[in-house]
Design goal:
This protein is mainly α. The protein has nine helices and two strands, in the order αααααββαααα. It is 74% helix and 3% strand.
Length: 333
């Protein structure tokens, strides 16, 4: 039976189960074996996850608080940032359960929680890149309107709310198959694990799930983003060389730069995971200490994306810094 455990989770990271169950390499050992053979990994990983959890919860909660409380933060871009922070906060909230699963060697939380955790794990894969895609579309429309010296009457905070809701609905539909296949699996040693249990032929279903994630979670949104930014750069170059239109004002340039950097960090954190998926589809990689270390590094890197965005906003967005300081002063007073 093929499975991907919650300790391995949605990211095809090292997990318990049968041969070829872990996506990145074949012949995965159980958590118990990993704890014996690779004690450093077994100890260090929960520490890393705990740091990511603490930083992510603190930072994303601060972003949510500032955007909801500060009147001057009610902008279209910030609405998308708010939803991105909610998605990241939701994921970091369940990280302690993944840590407990890793330390206990088995899944003690039941099937309902199993479906919930694996669903949130997959939400983390899709939600960030789709909200960044929407933000890229928004930036392109702003640049295009500026080049043409036009306004965007339908680009409102209310419209951004509706678009954000549509993104959540889309991601929910994409994640639904993983929710359906998430079950508690008992291995031959009578240890329970939260896993994706596919029907027969299991290997074919597993391969389809990886291709599904690769196409919908990376290929389509990233291609869209790359096309948009290429067109955006072309428009700006064309405007500077062949047009008398005014350049983007300072504020718009800063927002566009911030979106671009957040996007670049997201791709940096997630590209190795999707590259590992491609490797798993095209080659059989045997388990070695190096491969296991790489797999866990890829996991930690993808997790880290959920806590990095708030720090990017703090460094790149002056209005966020000012609003945060003002809210702190008001509460202190």
């Amino acid at each position: 039976m093929e499975n991907i455990s919650a300790a391995g989770g949605a990211l095809n990271r090292p997990c318990s189960g049968s041969e070829d169950a872990c996506g990145f390499y074949k012949g995965a050992e159980s958590n118990f074996t990993i704890s014996e053979q690779y004690p450093d990994l077994y100890i260090i990983l929960p520490v890393i996850y705990a740091v990511i959890c603490a930083a992510g919860l603190t930072g994303n909660t601060a972003v949510i608080y500032v955007i909801l409380k500060a009147p001057n933060m009610k902008t279209v871009t910030n609405m998308f940032i708010l939803n991105l922070a909610i998605a990241d906060d939701l994921f970091t909230l369940v990280l302690p359960i993944n840590i407990a699963d890793h330390l206990l060697y088995y899944w003690p939380f039941g099937e309902v929680m199993c479906k919930l955790i694996l669903s949130i794990d997959h939400y983390n894969i899709f939600s960030s890149v789709y909200f960044l895609t929407v933000m890229s579309i928004d930036r392109y429309l702003v640049v295009l309107a500026t080049v043409r010296s036009k306004k965007l009457p339908h680009r409102t905070y209310r419209a951004a709310k509706i678009v954000s809701l549509c993104v959540w609905v889309l991601v929910t539909i994409i994640v639904l198959p993983f929710t359906i296949f998430a079950e508690v699996y008992t291995d031959p040693l009578d240890r329970k694990s939260c896993a994706l249990i596919f029907p027969k032929p299991e290997r074919a279903w597993l391969k389809v799930s990886r291709i599904y994630t690769l196409i919908l979670g990376f290929a389509i949104p990233v291609t869209t983003i790359c096309v948009l930014y290429t067109l955006m750069v072309y428009r700006l170059r064309h405007m500077q060389l062949n047009s008398n239109a005014k350049a983007l004002d300072k504020a718009k340039k800063k927002v566009t730069l911030m979106v671009f950097i957040v996007l670049a960090v997201c791709l940096f954190c997630w590209a190795p995971f999707h590259l590992a998926t491609i490797v798993s589809l095209t080659a059989d990689v045997r388990e070695t200490p190096l491969v296991i270390g790489i797999a866990y590094f890829i996991t930690s890197l993808s997790y880290a994306n959920s806590c990095l965005n708030p720090f990017l906003y703090a460094f790149l967005d002056d209005s966020f810094q000012k609003s945060f300081k003002k809210l702190l002063e008001c509460r202190a007073g």
